[in-house]
Design a protein that fits this description.
It is a single chain. This protein is mostly beta strands. The protein has one domain: Methylamine Dehydrogenase, Chain H (7 Propeller). It contains no helices and 36 strands. A hairpin with a 5-residue loop joins strand 19 (272-275) and strand 20 (281-285). Residues 7-37 have low confidence and may be disordered.
């Protein structure tokens, strides 16, 4: 059954609070048997876009086919949806004026595609939607102000995906420097101002917070005072802060629980750095390119780090094993060392994060090419394969049921068979700009376009 919901442009402010994208801390609320192990609590979910097989998950869809519900979302926000039990959390920034609209396919700085400033007041709003129906449970305005810094035309003032442990919700809006925690009814538990900072190119912010074992980690690399900060998740008190020698960065930090230890892996222009849980530097590696956007992720015992601004050199991918210490940067001509298992100098992407699925490392280049490498060795399986001429890609790929899903900026999702041979199976169109990476949970795909949130699932399974 398909239903359509609309959220009023003037958000309903209720006495309960707001919830948003998440990361599991291990300390969350007790889960019901129906939903145990089936949460989507952070950007790209628990396994960086790789999802267990489920016959309910859709292979084909359109604006009407296999759509359970659609809810209109006001304002502009490119944060991903997250899910806890029957709650779907989403953030947006609603302007009181006319804003320049995002344009597809802009990558290089310049008059058309560079920084844009807003002089209108904005309201930063969090929504809680019912998973079953798409109805709005509540909305919460957490801030109202004129943005103090610019954004890239393709960015938004609500691009950070929040995190949750099922007990509290944590949202970070870097453009106003606000971190807030809310309970699951939407009541604000604490607020903390971290400061508003411009990056070197004034493109705005997008690095989401990370949550682990009662601490919230926020990175903000800028041209004034870059930092990684750990906050007490229950109180918002600062636990520790480290300064970073960086100028800008849009990559979300990764809490990497490996066989040897737990560490916080952060990308950056000048260096990739990993810290222990008290903020001490464990290891670092240089050799990134400008405009670091892809989020580090871990699969099958390795952590993968990349950057790939189209005009930069190199555009690297590093696959690193646990246990590194000190500076593990490669010397000229090296393709690996004791801890860098493999390195590809020209495989990195600009906006999208890569995907590891069934032993294959899939690279979705922003200009519309797909590549496939062995995830453990870096060996090429197939090279640059054009998906669709003229299409740009910002959302990160995801996978389930032996399918790789590649969503372009025009709302078309290209479905590719997983494995050693490239085969484009079909294309699913929603006919609206889409930059946000979706959530995939409990047999449903939650996909955000510029004005809507879709819940998509196989009709035959509902």
């Amino acid at each position: 059954m398909r239903s359509t919901r609309t959220i009023c442009t003037l958000a309903v402010l209720v006495t309960v609070g707001c919830a948003i994208p998440a990361v599991v801390s291990g300390q969350g609320a007790e889960q019901s048997p129906r939903t145990q192990g089936a949460q989507w609590t952070k950007f790209r979910g628990p396994d960086a876009g790789a999802v267990a097989d489920d016959p309910r998950l859709p292979d084909t869809w359109s604006e009407t086919t296999n759509v359970t519900w659609t809810t209109d979302i006001p304002g502009l926000g490119w944060s991903s949806p997250v899910v806890w039990d029957d709650h779907v959390f989403l953030t947006t920034a609603v302007s009181a004026g006319e804003e320049r609209q995002p344009v597809r396919g802009l990558y290089d700085p310049g008059a058309a595609s560079g920084a844009t400033r807003s002089t209108a007041s904005h309201r930063w709003v969090v929504y809680d939607l019912d998973f079953e129906t798409g109805a709005v449970r509540w909305s919460r305005e957490v801030a109202a102000a004129v943005p103090q810094i610019e954004r890239h035309l393709k960015n938004s003032f609500a691009s950070e995906t929040p995190v949750t442990d099922g007990e509290r919700l944590y949202v970070y809006f870097g453009t106003i420097g606000l971190v807030a925690a809310l309970d699951l009814t939407g009541e604000v538990q604490w607020r903390r101002e971290l400061g508003v900072f411009n990056g070197r190119q004034r493109f705005g912010t997008a690095a989401s917070p990370a949550l682990h074992d009662g601490r919230l980690y926020v990175v903000n690399d800028n041209s004034t005072a870059s930092f990684l900060v750990a906050l007490d998740a229950a109180t918002g008190d600062e636990v520790w802060r480290v300064e970073r020698d960086e100028v800008e960065n849009w990559a979300t930090p990764l809490v990497w629980e490996n066989d040897l230890r737990t560490e916080i892996v952060t990308a950056g222009l000048r260096s990739v750095r990993s810290y222990d849980l008290e903020g001490q530097l464990l290891w670092e590696v240089g050799g990134m390119t400008v405009n670091v956007v892809p989020t580090p992720f871990a699969r099958d015992g390795l952590v993968y780090i990349s950057s790939g601004y189209p005009g930069g050199m190199p555009r690297p991918v590093y696959a690193i094993r646990p246990g590194a210490a000190g500076d593990i940067s490669l010397s000229p001509g090296e393709n690996g060392n004791d801890f860098i298992v493999w390195y590809q100098p020209m495989l990195g992407t600009y906006n999208t994060s890569a995907l590891v699925y069934e032993g294959h490392y899939y690279t979705l280049l922003d200009r519309g090419f797909l590549l496939n490498h062995d995830a453990q060795t870096g060996r090429e399986v197939y090279g640059r394969t054009r998906i669709k001429p003229g299409s740009g890609f910002t959302a990160s790929p995801w996978a389930y049921n032996d399918r790789i899903f590649l969503m372009g900026e025009d709302g078309d999702t290209f479905v590719v068979r997983s494995g050693p041979e490239f085969e484009l199976l079909h294309t699913n169109s929603l006919n609206e700009m889409a930059l946000a990476t979706p959530a995939v949970v409990r047999g449903s795909l939650l996909l955000r376009t510029q004005t809507k949130l879709y819940r998509i699932s196989n009709d035959s399974s509902r």
